[in-house]
Amino acid sequence: MSTNTVTNWFGNIVSHPSVIVDANSIDDIVAVMKDPVKYPSPVRPVGSNHSTAPCGAADGGTLIRMKMNQILSIGTDTLTVQAGATHLQMAKALEAQNLQFYVNTEIGSLSAGSAACAGTKDASFEGEFGQVGSYVIGTKMVLPNGDLLEVTEAAQPDLMQLVRCSYGLFGIIYEVTYRIRPLTPMHVHHKTFSLEEFIAALPDLKALGYSLMYYAFPFDNCLTVEFRKYNPTATGEPNRSAWALRNRIWGMSGPKFGHDIEANVSNPVVRYSIVDASNATWRFQLENIVTSDYTIPPDQIINYPPVSDDSRYTFSLFAFPEDEFPAMLTDFFKFCKDYYAKFGYRSNLLYVGYRIAQDQKALLSYSYDGAVMTIDPVSTANPGWDTFLAAYNQFCSDRNGKPLLNQTPHLDAATVKKAYGDRFTTVANARKKYDPNDRLLNDYFRGLLS
Ligand SMILES: Cc1cc2nc3c(=O)[nH]c(=O)nc-3n(C[C@H](O)[C@H](O)[C@H](O)COP(=O)(O)OP(=O)(O)OC[C@H]3O[C@@H](n4cnc5c(N)ncnc54)[C@H](O)[C@@H]3O)c2cc1C
After folding, report:
1. Atom in ligand 1 nearest the alpha carbon of residue 66
2. DSSP letters along 235-257, please?
3. Which residue of 110, 148, 167 sits with most ligand 1 atoms within 8 Å of its CB, as the best mutation to test the pocket?
4. Rounded average pLDDT per 10-residue block, the chain, 450 residues
5. In this predicted model, what pLDDT tens digit does every residue of 224-282 receive, in sequence order?
6. Residue 3 pLDDT
7. CA distances from 447 to 18, 405, 444 (A)
8. Which one of 189, 199, 268, 402 has the largest count of C-beta atoms within 10 Å of its C-beta?
9. Whether 281 and 169 share a structural domain
10. From the CA of 268, how far away is ligand 1's center (Å)?
11. 207-227 residues labelled b (16+ CB within 10 A) or e (exposed)
């Protein structure tokens, strides 16, 4: 076995590539593709390696770490970057020119290469998409045979639809062009509902035209909903502290608290009553502090440390047709409580979810058939987490849940095929055309495609 050991950011996905290459130029990538003896298969690119599934694992093969991260050009409505540029880095450059992304997802580490070809999620604004890649309108990549290929939405919309969910299996992306928009003031507020109140209010909440994200607390039978909307007429100075507080607690002190409580409080009854009390404080802060008529969208993007520490967290995700979500959510609250009663396991953090608009920009979009609402358990991977996720996968698959190949751990071929059906076959066939010798195919994708 190779002596190289590489983990994802969280540290729970370990792979042993034979060779690791830092790609600082297109030629570095071409050289890898053209020499399978020096650079064995599978060749897997990674950006920030934040995925919670082993899509970037390159056991026995060649791991390409994308180091090309320059911002190449900023126009009035487009941004072109090298594939290793990160979401926060790009957002800051845009903000300096009074511009912004459409989707300001909270993960600042998301690389442009990953955004262009892998799954993402954020609550959709009125009339907009919630997947970052849906605003990617052009990519340039190195194909498995070393040739270069440019794909644009304008010239090849069907191919772009495949590239947006290709997970680096068609080629390695070195340049990405996004559609962007003017920087616009944004309103945010939060409100807590009991499960029953939330379900009853949902049709009205949707009609209000806000983006809807939620923190779910099955053990307290409630949810706190985040409402966001552009507010172009906001005046005065923007509130820069609301998102700073959200980012600090959600991205750092909250998970650190979960980690510490796990390490120091062995009695589960005591431990989880402390977790519940902490979540109640979190709800209070969201409702009373993370509220403003005038915030700046890029302030939502979190600067996660490049190397994770005790404040790290991990998660999973399934998306559900929004019409089926109320029943699903009710079942899910019960599922969490039943699971805890039976097996003694529950997450030591919380659960979140997003309402995401119908989106056919990627063939494997989880909202291809209509708007969805997601359920994402979040945890510090406390003992029992992986077994819980196996049960959660089955629970979600039984209820028409759609997973994400880079954000849903422990997937199998049957679950993916059930979720994506013929669209998955189409992507699999296209992959074979672009990579007939399986140069980029790792064990994870081979298993899903089998
Ligand atoms: C703490 C935390 C918070 C998160 N929050 C969010 C969130 O709010 N919203 C959200 O959508 N996601 C979130 N994620 C998930 C994350 O956005 C995705 O896992 C994303 O893929 C990570 O980007 P990355 O650059 O690390 O991708 P990687 O994990 O490096 O790669 C993902 C996939 O893309 C491929 N790839 C990467 N670069 C290239 C390239 N240049 N060319 C071709 N293929 C490439 C890889 O081979 C792999 O298949 C979060 C993850 C963590 C750990």
Report:
1. 41
2. -S----HHHHHHHHIIIIIHHHH
3. 110
4. 89 97 98 98 98 98 98 98 98 98 98 98 98 98 98 98 98 98 98 98 97 98 98 97 96 95 95 96 97 98 96 97 97 98 97 98 98 98 97 97 98 97 97 98 96
5. 999 999 999 999 999 999 999 999 999 999 999 999 999 999 999 999 999 999 999 99
6. 82
7. 21, 12, 5
8. 402
9. yes
10. 33
11. eeebbbbbbbbbbbebbbbbb
* Closest listed residue to residue 393, CA positions, set 44, 52, 132: 52
Looking at the DSSP bridge assignments, the partners of residue 302 are 107
Q: How far is the CA of 111 from the centre of ligand 1 (A)?
A: 7
1, part of any domain: no
Q: Give yes or no: residues 308 and 403 share one domain.
A: yes
Q: Is 292 in the pocket of ligand 1 (CB under 6 A)?
A: no
Listed in sequence order, the DSSP H helices in 164-219 are 195-207
Which residues is 293 bridged to in the sheet?
Answer: none
Structural domain including 56 reads 6-66
| Count of domains for the chain | 2
